[in-house]
Write a structure and sequence with these properties.
With 277 residues, this protein is an alpha+beta fold. The protein is 16% helix and 42% strand. The chain has one domain. The chain has five helices and 15 strands. The strands form four sheets. Strands 1, 2, 4, 12, 13 and 14 form a six-stranded antiparallel β-sheet that branches. Strands 5, 8, 9, 10 and 11 form a five-stranded antiparallel β-sheet that branches. Strands 3-15 form a two-stranded parallel ribbon. Strand 13 and strand 14 form a beta hairpin. Helix 1 runs antiparallel to helix 3.
């Protein structure tokens, strides 16, 4: 089994992509500037068995770490979040292992066509406040109606050719911890030429229109090894239904689990995998 960088109390992650190489013998050193912090993310598609295991995970994680007003707004919009503050619960580790096995055994998964959202992981190297676009679902043609509950009132809008994203930013604190900021975003419509201001200069860029939901932004200060988990509420509704559900090649609907972890910084000298009961 190939494992991502791990520290005490964290999951074994797999299928590294984008900004890093696979670790050698479980330990790796990533050249990083002082103002860069590594952030590991993973998307898991959950079948019926994984959904059952998720129910046993919630009592073992900390939902109180998020402000109660934010939790209420998230729930009104079909989103649920919590942090894993110490060792990873065994049911959650089992979910990750079962998805990894599916990736190894299923040709459709290996080809990335098992569903419109595939299970995958990435390691991001984040500078202070730098925007990272995390595509939750691929762009689609046609229209999509999204419902958003704001202040107890339901609002809806139709979007053409939408793509669901997360605006992700990390703010390192210098001690290995960081404050992460995650905001749901949708880009839609045709590309348009826009003028972008950046460090005393203006440049033209082709971009699509975008809407965000700042009232649903998750802001959380995390230490290395701590995990943030975000998924859809039950029953499915609102933004959570669109952001955290996917349709498989066989036509089944599966729920998505999004995990975020601050990776080991320069302050860490060795990493280990550990699971808890």
């Amino acid at each position: 089994m190939i494992s991502l960088l791990a520290v005490s109390g964290c999951a074994r992650w797999s299928n590294l992509e984008e900004t890093t190489k696979k670790p050698t013998h479980g330990i790796t050193t990533i050249p990083m500037a002082d103002d860069v912090i590594p952030v590991e993310i993973i998307f898991l598609r959950m079948g019926s068995q994984q959904l059952l295991e998720l129910q046993s995970v919630w009592p073992r994680v900390n939902e109180q770490t998020l402000p109660i007003d934010l939790r209420k707004r998230l729930d009104q919009n079909g989103i649920r979040a919590a942090t894993v503050d110490s060792v990873i619960p065994l049911p959650l580790q089992s979910m990750i292992d079962s998805v990894e096995k599916r990736l190894q055994d299923d040709p459709l998964e290996q080809a990335g066509i098992g569903a419109d959202v595939r299970s995958h992981s990435r390691l991001l190297q984040c500078r202070n406040g730098q925007r990272k676009e995390i595509a939750v679902r691929p762009a689609r043609t046609g229209s999509m109606v999204l419902l958003h509950n704001e202040g107890g009132a339901a609002k809806g809008r139709s979007y053409e050719d939408p793509q669901l994203l997360l605006d992700f930013r990390a703010y390192p604190k210098g001690d290995g911890s960081a404050t992460i900021h995650i905001t749901p975003e949708i880009q839609h419509g045709q590309l348009k030429q826009k003028i972008i201001g950046q460090e005393f200069a203006l440049r033209r860029e082709m971009k699509r229109d975008a809407d965000t939901w700042p009232d649903l932004s998750i802001e959380q200060t995390m230490i290395p090894g701590q995990i943030l988990m975000v998924t859809a509420s039950t029953p499915a509704r609102g933004l959570g239904e669109h952001y955290f559900h996917t349709e498989t090649a066989s036509g089944d609907v599966e729920q998505l689990l999004f995990l975020v972890r601050i990776g080991p910084s320069k302050l860490d000298s060795a990493f280990a995998t550990k699971s808890g009961k």
